[in-house]
Prior knowledge:
Oligomer: heterodimer
Strand order of the largest sheet of chain A: 2-1-3-4
Strand order of the largest sheet of chain B: 10-7-6-18-29
Number of helices of chain B: 19
Structural class of chain A: alpha/beta
Number of domains of chain A: 1
Amino acid sequence: MSQTNFEPKIVGFLCNWCSYRAADLAGIARITHAPNVRIVRVMCSGRVDPTFVLKALSLGADGVMIAGCHPGECHYVDQNYKAMRRYHLLKHTLHAMGVEPDRVRLVWASAAEGQQLAEAIDGLVADVKKLGPLGWSQNWEENGERLHALEEIINEHAEAMEVHA
Amino acid sequence: MAEKVGVYVCHCGSNIAGKVNVEEVAKWAGENLQDVAVSRDYKFMCSSLGQKMIEDDIRGEGLTRVVVAACSPHLHEKTFRRACTNAGLNPYLLDMTNIREHCSWVHRDMDSATLKAKSLVSAAVSRVKFQEPLEPTYVDVNPATLVIGGGIAGLQATLELADAGYHVYLVERSPSIGGHMAQFDKTFPTLDCSACILTPKMSEAGQHENVTLLTYSEIESVKGSVGNFEVKVRKKARRVDYDACTGCGICIEKCPRKVVDTEFEAGLGFRKAIYTPFPQAVPRVPVIDADSCIWFQRQKCRACEKLCPTDAIKFDQEDETLTLNVGNIILATGWKPFECRDIPQYGYGRLANVYTSLEFERLCNAAGPTNGKIVLRDGKTEPQSVAIIHCVGSRDVRHNEYCSGICCMASLKFGHLVLEKTKANVYSFYIDMRTNQKGYEEFYQRLLEEGMHFVRGKVSEITDAARMPNEQGKLIIQCEDTLMGRQRRIPVDMVVLMGALEPQSDAKEMGLKCGISCSMQGFFTERHPKLDPVATMTDGIFVAGACQGPKDIPASVAQGAAAAARVQGMITKGKVMVEPVVAKINEEACSGCRICNNICPYNAIEYDAERGVSHIITALCKGCGTCVSACPASVISGAHFSDQQIDAEIEGVLWDVIRPKSAVVSAN
């Protein structure tokens, strides 16, 4: 694949109170930044289920940004710490899966930090550009056998996996 | 379930249309996105005509979902929700996506901005289909209010509310209300006596039928939410019967134990072991300081008990915890002075005649330890020269980056008082002179005319090591005069350090108790720095005075009154809307693992041991969604931000990369 015109697709999970407003502020102050991050609003960075990140990457995103209030400034007291814990665990998981952990980044941006958020977006875009496309979905298609094998396992253990009330 | 989605793309004049090809986005959405029944663009969607367009389509086309691609939902989500409601559609079936602040205003290239706008619209369309109709709940507002902090800001808020006929609990940590203002002598720029304008307010609050004064008390915990807070207050043991005491003061007079008063007199004067901080204290009921009282230290004395005419002394009194039920809370916890010892080169604590600004206030005060005479530490020598150092701990990256706002004016006030009371020369060492309120600049001009000397430059050192004969026995100010462009050494007798205003050391803890956040410096964060400086991110909690940021008396009073007005608005309305964005546990599927229990910062998740499941107390849930993402069985659903909705949004936002794959899937 030609790397020269690679424009990464990045999904950004921004918390409603600080980072989303930081992005709003970046807009109001006309702080230009890379258009690659597409923003999904969540109430709190603590709402970001690691599976959201994995889902985004598996669907074809090249990177993911999670942004929340600064530690100690969370609108929901301290839920951004929970986001932070999950983030570090997720980085380990990504590494184990063979995905460069640098594709996922946790950023703190208060509602007043439009400039900082814009810089963080540019930074992540630049880094993901260096890493190149992730191409998870393509790679997955190539390994159709693996999917088949997984299905077999599920079928084999269907009885054991049944949840009894 | 074929939903009929209406997509409305706003031009916002040229704000969006200048960088995003709005027509193309609307046309593309109508042709390519599933279930889109109507897709239109319009000059100003938020105008009444734009809203009418949406309303007409909901009625005429039978739309079941609406997507508006325009500005930030923080700006106009309410507008469009109202339009939906008007047309009979549940307002929570709307999704707003931000193609202005997050797109047209921040991207240079039209093509990439248009592509991003398409992604955002695609995400909204796929998410909105999973949105569910929600009904906001309404709760009654308890008309009682809690004001935390009895300084001038808290007092103002208390009196405004009490005068309006509502009950107020005023909780103050120290034995008397009044705050820092009670320590001051004069107030700038009018030089009216601080006590003369403050004490009437204090006694009014003390006697007001609508005010319950809880001095010498601390906030233990705050539970509940807007409209119905339950606050636990610990009344520290005064060891004086509040109701029996008449405030005659005999106990104070007769108490044999004298200690240095580090609180009110800033260490310059003495108080007794049983004391009121100052003569005009409200309430007049004294407290016994167990750490210095002879009875508590050596089981001797009890002079106060023997002499009290009303038998009000109760040595065995203990702390008492009260539970208050209030609808709103105003935080006015104020500030603390910067610890000047943290700048050792200024010599505070080492060089006797270096004072803090609060010490100097007490020195100037006619009711202070020297009866208002400005003298050196020896208690008799009048200084020949006084230096006032600005920005001690403010505007300094090593301590506090912010400007404390009031120190320039306070320095001018000090300068005036020194010139008025002594024959001393006064030097002001400033970085920039900031006098930007009504009457302040005029006061600065007045001091220039009165002969105060101004040296522009940051002081590097204050020392008693003389180099020249005229420096003997003096304090030498070493400073670069940036207007003259050279170093100067100015010998003086007395130095006043204008320390920064800092947040209270336990401001963060208080913030946690109330569920509000602090800035990096520790000042409470307001909802909006310009448009909502009184409310906080937590409904029903308001801030006033220096706890929100350094401010002078007029600004504190204004903010106190503003907070009271906001609370009155809440009380008059009687009910508050609670956003239905809350989490819910499917109890049938809950395994009772209790992982969610500890994750909730509001203790909104309760474990029902009998049934072995957890359930959410909706009134306490604030809807952050952390439990939703933590549940290993995925049986907690977050209204308006469900897994399904966010998954759909992720799929939608990546429409251009997953399209080939989804084509394959649908072919199967």
